[in-house]
Design goal:
- By secondary structure, this protein is mostly helical.
- It has a single domain, classed as Hydantoin permease (Orthogonal Bundle), CATH 1.10.4160.
- It contains 19 helices and 2 strands.
- The protein has a two-stranded antiparallel ribbon with strand order 1-2.
- The structure holds 4-fluoro-L-phenylalanine.
- The site of 4-fluoro-L-phenylalanine (PFF) has 15 residues, from helix 1, helix 2, helix 10 and helix 15.
Length: 449
Amino acid sequence: MEKKNKESFGSKFGIIAAAAGSAIGLGNIYRFPCEAGANGGGAFFIVYLAIVLFMGLPLMVTEFVIGRRSGKNPVGAFKSLAPGHKGWARLGYLGVICSFLILAFYCTVAGWTIDAVWKAITNYYHGKDLATVQFGFDSLKEETWQPIICEAVFVFLTAFIIIKGVTKGIEKYSKILMPILLGILIILGIKALTLPGAAEGVKFFLKPDFSKINGTVVVNALGQAFFSLSIGMGILITYGSYIAKNDNLTSTAFSVCICDTIIAILAGIVIFPAAFSFGITPEAGDSLAFVTLPMLFNQMAGGYFFCLFFFVLLTIAALTSSISLLEAPVLYFTEELGISRKKATTYSAIGVFVLCIIASLSLHSDTCLKIGSFSFFNLLDYITATFLMTIGGLLTVIFLGWKMKKEDFYDEFTNDNTVNMRLRKAMYFIIKYISPLAITVILITQFIK
Ligand code: PFF
């Protein structure tokens, strides 16, 4: 097997920050509340937590192990760890394709975030009532040029950071900024909880009504967990390839899962109490983040600065995720096809931007870019998170459990018998038997429906 010879992350904190940077993003603050709101609140939340712990964490460890063992991007990793089995390399391609599709709708939502930054700068939200803020957001989706320009800015920023290189680009930004985002969310949480009627929102989000748990809730929680943790499409295989030999992969994965989940929980604690207090329904989808939050800032002393700061940080959180998404095709083009990094990034960014324009136009009410009741935008979201990522995750654990040598897993998992010795058998068992079985059952139940 060819061994790696590339940059490693500078420090343990650097890897956690970068992987958490990939994980924490619009998935936590925009998508998580949408999914929790549409799937019964507390019922969704409890299933989500269980999935993160019992399926997300082992899959993250799996990706790190495959990445560090091979020292390569997903396509190269599957090729080199299972030589002669061409089929597995396709799993790497699935990740590359999935990255493009996710980026298309991700950059659309990031475009709304940039629009919110602009609105915050110009003090647009100040003194506006709910109906006006809601109308402003709905009209943005109907516009043609405004969202496209915002998306262009976002795609450009992503490509720019990628061209600057891995450690310098990713590590530098995420290390300082994510803790600040956490701090602001805590302040927002405190404010939201003191609003009149907030208790109803807390109850909705945190009190599970077990009768609401069904196949759809479980499959959506699975998709959300994979999406939020950035697993199931090989992104973290790429990150694993940069992790130094003596880092403990399990504790790194655990820290990333914890950081990501804390941000999602905080987002729920901010958004649901505030939404209930303002009379926004939990099924309001996109508006939960883009209407509730500006309304909350309106109620706060120093709201102008909080609003501005928050949306700038959210844009940066989205950037650290989109960087990791775009890094997947770029690494594939450079490592497998020998194209220069600059060219690979430029071509990939143009491809993403084109898809992104289609996704954003598909949200117009008079659009023809719909399949049934699904807009192209919704379709991308649904197909990637609910199916491609979960199928990718399933195949990845099968690969590790059934194709890779057990000794290779043990060596990598225990850092050549120095850490996690007691945990290795249990983890291997979960990855080999429990995870594949659980994901298959969830997916089959959903397909049958
Ligand atoms: N995890 C990111 C978020 O929650 O915003 C989105 C994402 C990044 C999904 C990277 C998938 C991925 F591979």
